[in-house]
Amino acid sequence: MKLGGEANKLIILESEKEVEKFFKTNKDPFIVISGGSNLLIDDKYFNGNIIKIDIKGITKTDHKEYTVLEIGAGEVLDKVINYSVNLNLSGIEAMSKIPGLIGATPIQNVGAYGQDISQVLISLKAYDLSTNKIVELSNKDCEFSYRQSIFKNPKTRKHLILSLKIKLSKKPLKSAPYKAIEDYLKRNQIEDLSPLSIREAVSKIREEKLPDPLKMPNVGSFYKNPIVSEATLNRLLSRYENMPYFEDSSKNSKTKKYKLAAGWLIDQAGLKGYSRYGFMIYPKNALVITKIKDSTNFCDLMKFSKIITKKVKDQFGIELKIEPEIFNI
Ligand SMILES: Cc1cc2nc3c(=O)[nH]c(=O)nc-3n(C[C@H](O)[C@H](O)[C@H](O)COP(=O)(O)OP(=O)(O)OC[C@H]3O[C@@H](n4cnc5c(N)ncnc54)[C@H](O)[C@@H]3O)c2cc1C
User: Fold this and answer.
1) Which of 109, 205, 198 is nearest to 161 (CA)?
2) DSSP code at position 256
3) Annotated catalytic, 187?
4) Are 105 and 164 a contacting pair, CB within 8 Å?
5) Are the beta carbons of 148 and 253 closer than 8 angstroms?
6) For residue 247, how far is the Cα from the chain centroid?
7) How many degrees, rounded to 5, is the angle at CA 146 between CA 139 and CA 224?
8) Which of 40, 105, 146, 225 is paired with 250 by a 20 to 30 Å CA distance?
9) pLDDT tens-digit readout, 211-230
């Protein structure tokens, strides 16, 4: 979003050994940044360091029906997807073009168009800041749910992610993983469901819906899609019968929950294209906020967001939650 002030130092750690050595002796406050695409940082001076885990490398182990990739946290996610698609491997192709590094994907269980990292992750290696030891965490240990994990939860976050082990299928998908992809393939008379075909479809869909962050600063989805109970869903459907919703497929929810489309709620509140304080609701996609004035700042963004969340709350009784990580210094 091109916000944030200055910090003391940028420290780039390129191996597990460097991470261990640095944190055993250095106790200064720090913020971890990978690609910086999902962060909102206060404009004040940060009296601490910025840490980047930049461990590179991909190793591949072949099995009969699947391939396991072990990937350093510093690899760019879309490059890993391109690499796997070129090997004709399926599992992350629908996550094409999501910015950032692979090491950040477990934080909010990154995903798009029916796939997310929890569906392919076997385990990951992380540096545990409470014990100063490198640990291996299984998929279950990460407690993934929709845009959530132990790494995002402030009560349980204490790990620096060093590498990921993921399992990708040698078989292509049997059907399109998401309605928007299915519609795109139909519209363009494409029957091919190979990883490359899905990657190309997703890339086109995203081009139409999302502004390029290098040209129009943004963090992708600004709000999480709200998860509601069946009673809340029915209350809303009785007033808005065309409201889109999806059953929440998170493994962790015990009762039936439903996911609403935050972008639809914002759109219905009449806010598409709305601008104030140097920020704007992107006219082609109400879930995205773009920065349209260079001189604007973090406080202005929080004021702008309050207007949006209040309008949605007043109209639907739904509390929108900001999706990116906020570092309030
Ligand atoms: C145009 C656009 C489209 C997007 N589309 C999607 C989408 O479809 N789906 C989706 O889920 N997200 C999406 N995002 C959000 C973002 O790309 C993802 O969340 C991505 O994983 C962030 O990666 P990053 O490397 O930029 O992480 P950063 O923004 O640098 O960091 C994000 C968080 O992870 C922490 N972190 C980063 N690396 C590590 C590490 N190695 N160890 C411990 N903590 C770490 C940071 O401290 C921070 O809390 C989009 C963003 C943009 C700008």
Assistant:
1) 109
2) -
3) no
4) yes
5) no
6) 20
7) 150
8) 40
9) 999 899 999 999 999 999 99
Per residue in 177-193, pLDDT tens?
999 999 999 999 999 99
- Amino acid type, 179: K
Active site residue 323: yes
Q: Looking at the chain, which residues constitute the CATH 3.90.78.10 domain(s)?
A: 227-327
Q: Which of 147, 149, 163, 200 is catalytic?
A: 147
What is the dotted CATH code of the domain comprising 227-327? 3.90.78.10
Q: What local confidence, expressed as pLDDT, does residue 326 receive?
A: 92
User: Complex ipTM, two decimals?
Assistant: 0.99
Of all protein residues, whose CA lies closest to atom 16 belonging to ligand 1? 38
By residue count, the chain amounts to: 329
- The class of domain 58-169 in CATH terms is alpha beta
